[in-house]
Structures are given as structure tokens and as C-alpha cells.
Design brief:
The chain folds into two domains: 128 residues, Aminotransferase class 4, branched-chain amino acid transferase, N-terminal domain (D-amino Acid Aminotransferase, Chain A, domain 1), CATH 3.30.470.10; 171 residues, Alpha-Beta Barrel (D-amino Acid Aminotransferase, Chain A, domain 2). The longest helix is centred in the first third of the chain and has 18 residues. The strands form two sheets. Strands 7, 8, 9, 10, 11, 12, 13 and 14 form an eight-stranded mixed β-sheet that branches. A six-stranded antiparallel β-sheet has the order 2-1-6-5-3-4. It starts with a helix and ends with a helix. It is built from ten helices and 14 strands. It is α+β, with helices and mostly antiparallel strands and 310 residues long. The structure holds pyridoxal-5'-phosphate (PLP). Pyridoxal-5'-phosphate (PLP) binds next to α8.
């Protein structure tokens, strides 16, 4: 069996190579003094490729451009990224033929670092690698989550743009520390709250909840709600795509503000993201969320809608 490192494909965006320059993932490729390595100074995106098609590419490229803008990084145009993505995904599939159509998936990351001090342009590359087993398992079995205070209030993004709260920067050490903290408590994941008591997001995912009610004329009303996008969270491309699909399927949509009690009162809660997709939340801080039968039905319905997202 190939190791994840050797299965990985790297494609650097390089003006001398129209379709990107493929590089050896088992050899050093960055300077040790790259500011991405020494300061986490850069931005990234993570996407899922299924059967050779990378999902939601435009939404991810747009968010990458927004993150780069927030850090004053001048990155290559979207067509150059698209060509490098196609090169990387094709090379990955040819190096790692899927054992079955269900397993024909890959993680496609877009990475940008500021480069070494004084570099004329950032260093940019695409990394294509296998999907881990944990995400697939959590989609099926669901996850237990704890609430953790992120320490900022929900107005911090607007008041202090230098905190880069809505950008997807390479500085994920805090997010990873929160996940390790959860694992030590026996939980799988985290939902961050603000210091003023609002529900924010997961360290690598967006929070969604569903409320199901009977209307006065006996109709079933299904409502999908996510925290306000301007509360210092990353605008999820998965949430955006699922909201569009759910609206077309007759769901009502809502955008916070949400408090932890809204999660405890919901008929279902999920963490959604591009790689793990829709992970149903079984418990928050040890309390069961929703009722198993309704939660299963809503999860199946939304997972089906999300599966059709391009
Ligand atoms: N919020 C954070 C902090 C994330 O890191 C991510 C994804 O990595 C998300 C939300 C979900 O974003 P997307 O649905 O675009 O994967």
C-alpha cells in the first residue's frame, strides 16, 4: 500500500508552466525560511474531487481570492488555478486508481504562502491527496461535540479586521488545539461560541440546525438555520451550496443569531464542510440532540440534496 505522502500529488503554479509544474511530494519543495512555515502567513482552501470532478471550484476560488485580499497577497488568476487543479487531479487518479467508484475521491488543497522575506510573489501550489477514513465514518455515525469559547465577541470581525476572522489563513494552530482539547474530553469535534454567547462555527466546519414545525394549515415546515455570516466566521461554501439546494426543495432558510440553547432545542444539528460533508451531531456537551428517527430522515434528505451540488 502506498503511503499518503507518496500518493500525494503537488502542482506548483509557475509562470513557465501553463498547466502547473508537478513536483515530487517526497522531496523538500519550500524554503525553511518561507513565511508560511515560520509565521503561518498565507491562505488555503480544501475541496473534494469526486470521480475526477472538483466540487464547488468557483466558490472556493472566490473565497481564496477574498482571503488573499485580506492578507494583501497578490495571487495568480483563477484560470491558472483551474489548470493546476485539473493537472493535479488527473495525475492523482492516474497514480492512485480507485478500488471502487465510491472510493474515487480526493482532497484538493490550494495553498499560498507569502514566500521568503522580500519575495516578489507568493508561493502557490495545489496538493491532491487521499481522503482519510475518519470523515467517512463520521458522516455515517455522527459526532459528539463540545462547546468551547473562542474568546472574541461576535462584533470582533467588523471592529478588528486585522484579526482576519473571516479569512481562511494558514494559521490553524488554534483550531487544531481546540480539536485536540475535544479529543482529550472524549468528543469528536467542537462548536465555538463567542464571548457574548453566540454560536459561531466548528474549527473546520459550519454549524447548521433544523427546526421542523406544523403550520396552522397542517403543512410541515422545515427550516435550516446557520449563524450570521458577519459574526466572525468563515462563510462556508458547503453551507452556501446546501442552502441554495434546500431552498429549491422547499426549505425555509435562516441566519442566526443563534445561542447554544437553539442547538439543544433543534430537531437536528450538523457540522458541514467540503471534505467530511454533512456530519450529524449526536451530543453536545453530553446532551442528546434531536430525536434519532427525525434526525436520520432529515440527514438523508439534506445529504441527498448536497450530493448533487456541482
Ligand atoms: N469554518 C471553518 C473555520 C473552516 O475551516 C471550514 C472548512 O474548512 C468551514 C467553516 C467550512 O467551509 P467549507 O464548507 O467551504 O468547506
Amino acid at each position: 500500500m502506498t503511503s499518503p505522502a507518496s500518493a500525494t500529488v503537488l502542482v506548483f503554479l509557475d509562470p513557465d508552466y501553463e498547466y502547473g509544474r508537478i513536483a515530487d511530494p517526497t522531496q523538500p519543495q519550500l524554503m525553511a525560511t518561507d513565511l508560511g512555515a515560520t509565521r503561518g502567513d498565507g491562505v488555503f482552501e480544501s475541496m473534494l474531487a469526486v470521480a475526477g470532478r472538483t466540487r464547488k471550484v468557483q466558490a472556493h476560488l472566490d473565497r481564496l481570492a477574498g482571503s488573499a485580499h485580506a492578507l494583501d497577497l497578490d495571487i495568480p488568476d483563477q484560470d491558472a488555478w483551474r489548470r493546476a487543479i485539473d493537472t493535479g487531479v488527473a495525475a492523482f487518479r492516474s497514480d492512485n486508481p480507485a478500488a471502487s467508484p465510491d472510493e474515487d475521491e480526493a482532497v484538493v488543497k490550494l495553498l499560498v504562502t507569502r514566500g521568503v522575506e522580500g519575495a516578489a510573489a507568493p508561493t502557490c501550489w495545489v496538493q491532491v491527496s487521499p481522503v482519510g477514513a475518519t470523515g467517512r465514518r463520521q458522516r455515517e455515525a455522527g459526532i459528539d461535540v463540545i462547546l468551547l469559547d473562542r474568546g472574541y465577541d461576535s462584533d470582533a470581525a467588523e471592529r478588528a479586521p486585522w484579526l482576519l476572522l473571516g479569512a481562511k489563513t494558514l494559521s490553524y494552530a488554534v483550531n487544531m488545539a481546540a480539536l485536540r482539547h475535544a479529543h482529550k474530553q472524549g468528543a469528536d469535534d467542537v462548536i465555538f461560541t463567542s464571548s457574548d454567547g453566540r454560536v459561531l462555527e466548528g474549527p473546520t466546519s459550519t454549524v447548521l440546525l433544523a427546526q421542523v414545525e406544523e403550520s396552522d394549515d397542517g403543512e410541515t415546515v422545515k427550516r435550516l438555520i446557520t449563524p450570521q455570516l458577519d459574526s466572525g466566521i468563515l462563510a462556508g461554501t458547503s453551507q452556501g451550496a446546501l442552502f441554495a439546494a434546500a431552498k429549491a426543495a422547499g426549505w425555509e432558510l435562516g441566519y442566526g443569531p443563534l445561542e447554544p440553547q437553539d442547538l439543544f432545542d433543534a430537531d437536528a444539528v450538523w457540522l458541514i464542510s467540503s471534505i467530511r460533508l454533512l456530519a450529524p451531531v449526536n451530543h453536545i456537551d453530553g446532551k442528546e440532540i434531536g430525536t434519532p428517527a427525525l434526525k436520520k430522515q432529515l440527514t438523508a434528505e439534506l445529504a441527498e440534496l448536497f450530493a448533487w451540488v456541482e
